[in-house]
Amino acid sequence: MIRKLEALVQKYQITYADNARDIRHTEAELAGMIEELDGNEFDRKGLAELKTLLAGN
Question: Total structural domains in the chain?
Answer without folding.
Answer: 1
